[in-house]
Amino acid sequence: MSTYRLLLILCLLAAVLLSGCREQRQDASIPISVRDSKVAPPVERPPQELLTTQRAFSEVSQKVTPAVVNIQAARVRRVPQLGPMFDDFFGELFKRHPQRQRQTKSLGSGVLISAAGYILTNEHVVKGAEEIKVKLADGRIFDGELIGTDPDTDVAVLKIAASEELPVAVLGDSDALQVGQWALAIGNPFGLDSTLTVGVISATGRTDVGIEAFEDFIQTDASINPGNSGGPLLNIYGEVIGINTAIVASGQGIGFAIPINLARLVAGQLMENGEVVRGYLGVGIQPLSPALAESFGLDRITGALVNQVLVDSPASAAGLRRGDLLLSYNGREITSVRSLQLLVANTPAGGTAKLEILRDGQRLDLTVTIASREQQVVANDATKSVEDQEARKTGLGLTVIPVEGGGVQVEAIDTESGSARGGVRPGDLVLAVNQHKITDLSSFEGAVQDIQKAKYVRLLLKRGNSTLYLAFPAS
Q1: Is 229 a residue of the active site?
Q2: Which runs of consecutive H residues, i.e. helices, occur in 29-154?
Q3: Full residue range of the structural domain in which residue 412 is found
Q4: 9 phi, psi to nearest 5 deg
Q5: Domain total of the chain
Q6: Active-site residue, selected from the candidate residues 61, 124, 223, 295
Q7: Which of 154, 216, 324, 428 is catalytic?
Q8: What is the CATH number of the domain that holds 409?
Q9: Is residue 426 situated within a structural domain?
Q10: Mean pLDDT per 10-residue section of the chain, whose length is 475 residues
Q11: What's the whole-model pTM score?
């Protein structure tokens, strides 16, 4: 009887345990959100402003993508059959074997700017190409004809022949851009068609990036990756404000685009003439250093300093002088040497420009007629020292000798002097000290004596084919 009771109890315990396990399995199958007593509320509807912006991005993409093209440029490279070591031993044996040819391809983007089939892109995308293929957003593929390139701005124009009218992007006004405005980039990064990235205008007028000869870049944090080059940078209205051209490998999120006003100007000349002719002023210019600015009595660094005026140049005809500080060009502030170079280069030959200058503390206005860059004059660098003249040491820590044609030439420099710290080098020709023109040893020594109480020494030097100003504390 006791054995029977014990078996019954064990069976009941087993049944209870199995029932509990089944309840746990059923409970585990219920989603956590249902089992929890506190259920997360649904996401609220985003603010209307965000939805409007999102819709604007989509509309820009739908509007412009049909005008963005994929460019494939093919180049042929000749590859030697053998290395240099084999050439030394078996050169004669293998000379009759032709070199192998290897085809390389580069991918880029472009944007249609004319219903006739003209495409704006980067020069580096099509440089050296022997064959160019252009793929439209709808999948059609055309042979691309190279109309012209401008390596100085990295702009190129292609043309395709289509039997029907092509979609065209609307070109905006890059001069009206402001930092903080939306910027959208469309292109084919890494060969991926029609990719849209979004950012803002980070800066405008970047002139010292060191990528091209003439720079006025728009900086943006919209992603510009390999393959995006040549594609459009757009504003929130879908207007082209720039042509994507470069990324900074060491700076994540930094990309640059050529302003559309500059690209449009270059493209117009390429489509009309097949080449670009730039304006020419005929001056040597340099940036202001803090010491130079103070020596001219300026409270800030601005403009471009004229250190040379070429004979029979537009600058000479307009009355520009060495030592003039160029402040503005046709009403646009000159912020750097490169900004002036770009303004002059973009002025057509025969056009006039109004210059605002600072001369001896006075602001003056001059009008100059710009010539073609091809008419530029090369300065003569013929300087010859006068023999049988005793070299003399001056208080500036310089040992100088006179030269034919005026000025004195630096033979040696005291390494502890202000001249050495200011950047004067042996061989430099000293043309002026502060306001004093130097014609010989006597005028040089007189100028040095006259500036004893000056706070800064400013030297006008000729170095090679260039002239430049240097300044340093008089003490």
Answers
A1: yes
A2: 32-35, 48-64, 84-94, 123-126
A3: 384-473
A4: -65, -40
A5: 4
A6: 124
A7: 154
A8: 2.30.42.10
A9: yes
A10: 63 61 51 58 79 92 95 75 57 56 76 96 92 93 95 94 92 95 90 86 84 83 86 96 80 84 94 90 89 83 88 92 93 88 89 93 93 55 42 74 82 84 88 87 85 85 86 82
A11: 0.70
